[in-house]
Amino acid sequence: MADKPYESAWAHSMTTKEQVTVIGRLFKFAAPYKWFFIVSVILSATISAVNVFLPWLLQMYMDRYLRTSNATIAIMWMFAGLYFLGMLTRAIMQFWQNYTSTMGAEYMLENVRRKLFSQLHKKGMRYFDQTPGGSILSRLMNDTMTFSNFWALLNTLMLAIFAVISSFIAMAVTDMTVALWTLVLVPFLTITIWYYQHYSSKVYRRMRERLSELNTKLAEAITGISVIQEFRQEKRTATNFEKTNEAYYDTRKAMIRTNSLLLSPIINLFYALGTVIVLSIFGIRGLHEVVAAGVIYAFITYLNNFYSPMSNMMDSLSDFQNGMVAGSRVLKVVDDQTLAPAQHPVADAEITQGKVEFRHVTFAYDQEHPVLKDVSFVAEPGQTVALVGQTGSGKTSTINVLMRFYEFQSGEVLIDDRDIREYPAEELRAKMGLVLQEPQLFYGDIQTNIRMFNPTISDDQVQQAAHFVQADEFIERLPKGYATPVLERGTEYSAGQRQLITFARTVVTDPKILILDEATANVDTETETMIQNGLNRIQENRTTIAIAHRLSTIQNADLILVLNQGKIVERGTNDELMAQHGYYYDMIQLQNAAHEE
């Protein structure tokens, strides 16, 4: 039961008010490209006029010339030429109408993805903690692509509206009585469209939810493939994926069944009934008077022009419902207010010394259960402050607050005696260097990973940074040196090599404040020695805040803070803390005993 697909609140039908709201907001995305859609609407109206003109032209030819035997070669060629010219004009206009509407949709799709991608990077870390990566990917790619098809419906809808209006006017001009009889079926058609719109939105919502779950399962299985294989979880993973895939298949099947019944077949049925009504009326009338063949031909053609666009529109309603659901999911990402902590920059705010101070800081991830409780300390410029403690003691949370990944609830965080919120975000990122326990490399080459795609950093600066942290020793032994490719996550390099590259990436920006999150926790002793040498050079003339897993690496720190359950329980140098025989002393003894074993 635990693996049963989750039935979210998204899997209910959308109300008319919700759909109108989504449409209104989607129009705002399309606003910069409105001329594409305006031209498309004008061409739709013109095409409808041509569609009325062509049957009328043949009706005139049939009733005025063929029926009365007044047709001549010249008249025949004249009508043939006019008909050919009308068909050619319609074909050209159909091309441009389709081109303008499609290109407008494509430009809008590009605009939406760009804005959505930008919006994602403005969100705080809490959003990514709570939202699976596969779900985000599904909304950025699948949902945006789907609701761009919404404009295909507008294209078809414009054609249908103009076609219905022009065709009915043409029928009314030809024969008002018969034209009014054709409206008998319109209420039934309206009810069908309403029912489809109401029922299918629920099906499409459930389908998009299942697709999001499917993407999440795929992303998790691909990124965790090594762990899955190591613990022989292939069968369980495949079973879970199969259940999610089966649930997605069921919703797809429900969607296909709904569309197969309520789209083109029902419209074709109404068209057939309308044709029966028209032919019956003209048939009964023909028992008492002569009915011109041209009139019957024109009327049937107008009727076809009346229902055919509706058939196309009903086919597009599937895209419409899919687009509505996808659009609402994308807008949910846009509307999410889990934003990165706000800065209130002061014009002259600049980090020059690198002094860091926490004053009675309290912080909770969920706003209710503090993980940092009344934390206070000062890191003077050029000093190294180490954070130690058991798992969950608050070390990483302290870094998260200092890096402005999360907003703290009370207290003050100061840099150079100025509130951290008074610095522009760009200044904080430029003057603070972060090295994580798990080094992250990006697809490209070593050089671009060190400069992080910043074109203002020269090749010489890249090489100097690598030399500074002693990463040049292994880089220059590679076949292509700094141009050696880096594949996804840099898995072709050892953990120590990846970490040295991230050190070079940090030092090339010359930060004033260096933050180390257990930077040597996952490497061997020999590599740790290389990294430690690199660290010692990086820390020169910089304020360093370091989370230490191996306590031997921070014994020379100027200040060691021992955290326990979110509070600083001890502070001092290594010698001072050892003399106290407290928490720190016990941790050292435990690590030494573990090494001796």
UniProtKB/TrEMBL annotation:
The entry's keywords: ATP-binding, Membrane, Nucleotide-binding, Transmembrane, Transmembrane helix
The protein, known as: ABC transporter ATP-binding protein
Principal location: membrane
Chain ranges of the ABC transporter domain: 356-590
Record carries keyword Transmembrane: yes
Tagged with keyword Flavoprotein: no
Upper classification of the organism: Bacteria, Bacillati, Bacillota, Bacilli, Lactobacillales
CDD domains linked: ABC_6TM_TmrA_like, ABCC_Glucan_exporter_like
Domain of life: Bacteria
Gene Ontology molecular function, alphabetical: ATP binding
Domain ABC transmembrane type-1: 38-322
InterPro entries: AAA+_ATPase, ABC1_TM_dom, ABC1_TM_sf, ABC_transporter-like_ATP-bd, ABC_transporter-like_CS, P-loop_NTPase, Type_1_exporter
Topology of the protein relative to the lipid bilayer: Multi-pass membrane protein
Segments passing through the bilayer: 35-54, 74-93, 150-172, 178-196, 261-284, 290-307
Organism: Levilactobacillus fujinensis
Pfam family, one: ABC_membrane
Localization: Cell membrane
